[in-house]
Amino acid sequence: MQLNRLFRLPFLSLLVFSVLSTACKKHDMDDMKHDSPLMKIMMDMMTQMDAQAKTQDPDHDFAAQMVLHHDAAIKMSEEELRAGSNQEMKTIAQDVITKQRAEITQFNTFLGSHQPMQPLVPQFNQIQKTNMDRMMAASNGRAMTMRTDVDYAQMMVDHHQAAIDNSEALLQHGRNATMRQMAQAIITDQRQEIAALQSWLSRNR
Q: How far apart are CA 121 and CA 160, in angstroms?
């Protein structure tokens, strides 16, 4: 009996150490996410989207949300240009800035002249929310490396996928030809960018 206790004590000590070590690592990873400028941009975007008024007209709400979504992509890309070191990733970031600034102008032009139309489609807003929550869950599940190039690439994959998902929802529920064309263009363009980002990540992790 005494012998069993002697063997049990080192095992229990090792178990406690393992649990504490795992907890510390998780805490460190959470701190890294909190300290990441890229994650902060994503979280600020989500806060703005949650506060954004919804009209329940899919075309109007798609355009309004994509303005915020693109703005976050631009800010993340500007952070890549500021803090990144890989030229291939900087080139992708500059392309994102150029394309999405132009698309924001198109979205704002549409919003300036478009009035929400009947019939309302409230389920579109729920689809948008589900897609954005899925994006944040994917980003929260990633390990932040604090290497700007790597973190930018992996988070932009999640960010682009949400844009694709919302654009596909717009094609299903939208009625305006201009917005449908923009949604299809986003799907095509950002699928290509995701492929480029994933290819880079496979070579540079």
A: 24
- Which one-letter DSSP state was computed for residue 144? P
Return all residues near 97 (Cβ < 8 A) that are at least 6 apart.
74, 77, 78, 81
Q: Tokens for 72?
A: 């976050």
Q: Are 162 and 69 in contact (CB under 8 A)?
A: yes
Alpha carbon distance 138, 136 (integer Å): 5
Q: Give the list of residues 6+ apart from residue 159 with CB closer than 8 angstroms, or none.
A: 42, 69, 72, 73, 76, 135, 139
Q: Which residues contact 122 (CB under 8 A, 6 or more apart)?
A: 56
Encode pLDDT of 56-100 as tens digits: 999 999 999 999 999 999 999 999 999 999 999 999 999 999 999
Residue 42: pLDDT over 80: yes
Nearest to 128 by CA among 71, 29, 45: 45
pTM across the whole model: 0.84
**DSSP string for 142-197:** SPP-S-HHHHHHHHHHHHHHHHHHHHHHHHHH---HHHHHHHHHHHHHHHHHHHHH
Helices and strands of the chain, counted as H and E runs: 7, 0
What are the pLDDT digits (tens) for 26-37?
444 444 555 799
Q: Both tokens of residue 81?
A: 């240009």
User: Which amino acid makes up residue 167?
Assistant: S
Query: In this structure, are residues 70 and 100 in contact, taking their beta carbons and an 8 Å threshold?
Result: yes
Cα(11)–Cα(197) distance, rounded to whole angstroms?
45
